[in-house]
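User: Here's a structure from my thesis project, written as structure tokens. My advisor, Dr. K., wants to see whether a designed sequence matches the one we expressed. Can you design one independently, without my sequence as a hint?
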């Protein structure tokens, strides 16, 4: 996929390409990633504001958003209570020369809702949290090798991108999702050097209890640390993540995204014997405990205490899935809706069909995430669900007509 630099004549995209390599600092929001082969000058690349489940583009058009900022927002954009709490935190000074009481309060509350959490360290991004978790595991065990399954952010320890030293890459073995044999084989190969197994417990679907239990047993047998990366799944699948859903408890967990409804907060949480390695190694960041994001997280925690947010997301996600299934069903475009309702996918036999559908939907007022998850939010109301059905129906009908008109004559 191109980064959109050449294909787009959108003025905002062109300006962005000049000062920001790739056009934006978030990879999944690059024009070429948003629209793939359907990238065209009229498609929106920038937003002015976001509210509820909608955003306003740079050109003043309103879009219903199913990407929900890559899962960072589960209540809704600009949630009134979150915004008020953040403004209050900003007004009284979000940082000073002593750690804030709010760091302590939110840490205590996280230990009550995430099964493995006895202690907490705050950070600002999911990538930082997973890097910290791996650092803790290595410090705790005195070993180097990590077995990993999933996406953990951009940091060196988990990346094979240009610029990552070969020596760093040598300490990581990537294994496929939900494959017990591959995991056992990787553990046998790592032998005495194994520090940790880190897995995303949901990739397209929730991992099998057999795979996660095997990871738990292998870590126990080899004195290694089991880490669940619940950056996408905590405060979404269940408040306490997939570990709460399945009753399989890791030693460490990373959280981020929905925990602060779009504000910059992540954390590594876990059992005290492993977490306490933080006092022997070095994990620290100047703004890790600034209070605007912690205030947002406190509102999220309050909302989860008051309402069954995750079941709400499941109900709304199922409605969105059904709306899209019904809309595409008559047209035989080779499209499919699959995955858990709270974070589902629209997949296609031919990528170009999905690209074209995403482009036609955005022209009609709906932003779908191409090639990744559609994230449900409490703000996806009935009006939005009806609009999603109408827009996808109309877009699918147009693609179908286009395909019929380009069929060779019999
Ligand atoms: C499972 C998982 N871990 C880590 C990350 C990295 O988080 P961030 O982009 O906040 O650094 C992501 C981001 O998508 C993720 O989905």
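Assistant: Designed independently from the structure alone:
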């Amino acid at each position: 996929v191109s980064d959109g630099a050449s294909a787009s004549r959108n003025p905002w995209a062109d300006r962005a390409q000049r000062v920001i390599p790739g056009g934006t600092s978030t990879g999944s929001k690059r024009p070429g990633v948003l629209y793939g082969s359907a990238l065209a000058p009229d498609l929106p690349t920038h937003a002015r504001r976001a509210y509820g489940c909608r955003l306003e583009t740079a050109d003043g058009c309103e879009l219903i958003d199913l990407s929900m900022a890559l899962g960072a927002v589960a209540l809704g954009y600009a949630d009134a209570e979150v915004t008020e709490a953040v403004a209050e935190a900003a007004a009284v000074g979000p940082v000073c020369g002593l750690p804030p009481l709010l760091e302590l309060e939110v840490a205590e509350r996280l230990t009550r809702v995430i099964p493995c959490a006895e202690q907490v360290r705050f950070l600002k991004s999911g990538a930082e949290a997973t890097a910290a978790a791996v650092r803790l595991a290595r410090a705790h065990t005195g070993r180097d090798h990590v077995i990993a399954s999933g996406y953990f952010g951009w940091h060196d320890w988990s990346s094979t991108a240009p610029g990552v030293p070969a020596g760093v890459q040598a300490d990581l073995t990537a294994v496929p999702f939900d494959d017990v044999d591959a995991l056992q084989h990787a553990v046998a190969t790592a032998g005495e050097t194994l520090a940790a197994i880190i897995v995303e417990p949901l990739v397209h679907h929730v991992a099998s209890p057999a795979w996660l239990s095997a990871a738990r047993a292998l870590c126990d047998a080899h004195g290694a640390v089991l880490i669940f990366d619940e950056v996408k799944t905590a405060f979404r699948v269940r408040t306490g993540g997939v570990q709460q859903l399945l009753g399989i408890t890791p030693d460490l967990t990373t959280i981020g995204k929905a925990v602060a409804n779009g504000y910059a907060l992540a954390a590594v949480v876990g059992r005290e014997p492993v977490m306490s390695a933080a006092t022997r190694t070095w994990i620290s960041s100047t703004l890790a405990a600034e209070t605007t994001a912690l205030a947002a997280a406190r509102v999220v925690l309050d909302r989860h205490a008051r309402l069954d947010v995750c079941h709400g997301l499941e109900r709304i996600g199922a409605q969105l899935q059904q709306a899209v299934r019904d809309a595409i069903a008559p047209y035989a475009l080779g499209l499919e809706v699959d995955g858990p309702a709270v974070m589902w996918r629209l997949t296609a036999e031919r990528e170009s069909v999905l690209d074209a559908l995403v482009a036609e939907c955005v022209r009609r007022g709906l932003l779908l995430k191409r090639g990744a998850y559609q994230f449900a939010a409490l703000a996806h109301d009935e009006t939005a669900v009806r609009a999603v059905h109408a827009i996808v129906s109309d877009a699918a009908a147009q693609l179908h007509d286009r395909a019929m008109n380009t069929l060779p004559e019999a």
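When you compare it with your expressed construct, this may help: The longest strand covers residues 194-199.
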